[in-house]
Amino acid sequence: MVENSKIGFTRRGLLGAFAATAVVAAPTYSNAFGLLKGAGDIRRIRMYSGRTGESIDTIYWIEGEYIPEVVKEVNHFMRDWRSDATIKMDLRNIDIMAAAHRLMDVSEPYMLLSGYRSPQTNAMLRSKSSGVAKNSLHMKGQAADLRLKSRSVGQMAKAAAACSSGGVGRYSRSNFVHMDCGPVRTWGG
Predict the structure, then answer these.
(1) Whole-prediction pTM
(2) Which residue, 34, 33, 142, is CA-closest to 91?
(3) pLDDT confidence of residue 189
């Protein structure tokens, strides 16, 4: 991070100040389609990890541009916590997650159960559960498993499916929703 010692501002600080104002002034959208196609001025993602104790609440896109420093933070946050391995997360999936969150009109952050999975982690999980795909999109940084305390699996899945932008898996018994930016499809119960 580069600081301007004369005035004491950092680029990150200025972005944060702008983002705080933009959140207040941001328009509300009735569906994710407009958001995913570039409507609006900002995109925000809010998550926490019960595994690492970390949280993230950040504006990652402003006026048509992803913020590279913030995208790196999101990539790190969504890493494979078992191996500490990171990958460039597919921003289309982050957009789907953010749009679904906005559609649900909640302030609560997502609980991230699984973002990126290394091939080794995926193989280990697959050996323990038939519900883990051999060629999981988690290994490509194109999927996330998420939970909200204030919304049911059905409500979350409905919001994600309304984006019509990827796969939505309902895992009611485990209380989470899988969102990915692969082909549009739904599964689970």
Answers:
(1) 0.79
(2) 142
(3) 80
